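ARCHIVE CARD
Drawer: 12
Card no.: 0347
Subject: one protein chain, sequence and derived structure
Cross-reference: see card 0346
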Amino acid sequence: MNRLKNKVAIITGGAGGIGKATAKLFLSEGAKVMLVGRTEQTLKKVIDEFDSPNIAYCVGDVSKSEDTKNYVNETVSKFGEIDIFFNNAGIEGTSKSIVEYPENTFDQVIAVNLKGVWLGCQYVIPKMSDGGSVIITSSVAGIKGFKGMGAYVASKHAVVGIMRTAALENADRNIRVNTIHPGPVDTRMMREIEREISPDNPKEAKKAFEAGIPFGRYAEANEIAKLVVFLASNESKYITGTLQVIDGGMSA
C-alpha cells in the first residue's frame, strides 16, 4: 500500500477495462488520478463507482492536439503536477485482410493508437515531474503479427518506436518510458474482436485465442493493472526503454 502516495497519474482510455482496473489500484496505492476518455457518461459512471476525492475526469479525444493539451492542463490545475502517465487509449479497428481493409478504419486506428500516444508524450512529458513514469499500452500484437488485424498490429509495433525514443530523450530527467504488451484480456475489446472474427459464434473465436495461450485463458484486467502499478512505482526506477510482455506465454 501507498507505493504511489501523493503521486498524480493520468490514465487515457480511463473508462475501459484496463484503465478502470488500473485506476482502482492507483487509488488504493495512494495516487490521485485523472481519467481521460471520449464519453462523459461512461467516465462519470466510473467516478461514481469509486466515490473518491482523489479521482477526476476529463473528456477528450486523444488523437486531437487541443484535447490533449486540455487534459494535461486540467490535471495540473486539479492536482498540481503529473508524475505518472498511463498512455493507454486504444481501439481495435476491424478484422479484415490488408487488401480488404477500409482506409477510413485504418486512419482511425492509427489516429488513436499511434498519434494519440505521440501527442500524449508530446504534451505530458514537458509538464511531468522529474523521475516520473510513462507507461504505454502496446500489445502482444506489438511483437508479432495477426491475420486480419493489420492496422492494429502496425499501430502497436509503432508505439514501441515512440517508447524507445522517448526513453532516450528523457533519461537525463530520470523519466522512465516503457511499453506493456498484454495478450488477450477479458474486456470489451476482446468481445468486439471475437464478434468480428466469428459473428455467428464468438465463443468459438475465444476458444481459438485461448488455444494459442500456454496458460489457456485470457488475462484479467487486474493482472495487467498490477504490472502498470509496478512500472509507475519507484520499484521500477531503473527500468526504461523496455517491452514488458504480459501474455500468458503467448509469444514464447
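Annotation on reverse: The chain has two domains: 8-183+221-243, 187-218. The radius of gyration is 17 Å.
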